[in-house]
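Ticket #4471: structure output looks truncated?

Reporter: J.K.
Steps to reproduce: submitted the chain below (204 residues) through the standard prediction queue, then opened the result file.
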Amino acid sequence: MTVGVIDVGLGNVTAVKRMVQKVGGQPMSIANSFELSTVKKFILPGVGNFNEGMKRLKLAGLEDPIRVAAKKQDIYILGICLGMQLLCRSSEEAQVSGLGIVDADVVKIVSNKSEKVKVPHMGWNTVKIPRQSALFENIVEERRFYFVHSYKVIPDNEEIIIAYTTYGKDFCSSFQQGNIFGVQFHPEKSHRYGMNLIKNFVSI
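Returned output as attached by the reporter:
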């Protein structure tokens, strides 16, 4: 199965492609709309600023093609970290709108000394699975993933949340809206836990 990886300088594309390859997928860098049109499954990785992320997608001519692809039920999309946030409508970090594919907004994590919450949320943390999803299928051992983020996703409909993580309070660490998936953590930095998740995405 060929899996596209959006490559416009938003994340560690090499690490994501390497993990796709390790689990039996065929990774392919996607840098324009034509390349995007050739795949049925792709990953939108992301590290950094929301404004810059949307700017790079627009400059590459990928903003609208990603929106179009998301409407096709036989195309599967996985957003990672900033990539997850870019799938949403808006972010408190940004002056521009997101892709608006998922009915959700992105807000800043609030530092709280009493709850020992520092910003950014950085390091290993566990996830809780409130409902079944193909993305977490057969991941039955302790689910530990690596996080680095200062903002979190707030979906309109809590029913799309397929994983929670506690950092002071519970927040959405993964969602699924039909054929669209998002994870706030970095599976490509999460060793065997992340490898199992990427394997599930490749196998969908």
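Triage note (M.O.): checked the attachment and the full token line is present. The mean pLDDT is 94.
Status: closed, working as intended.
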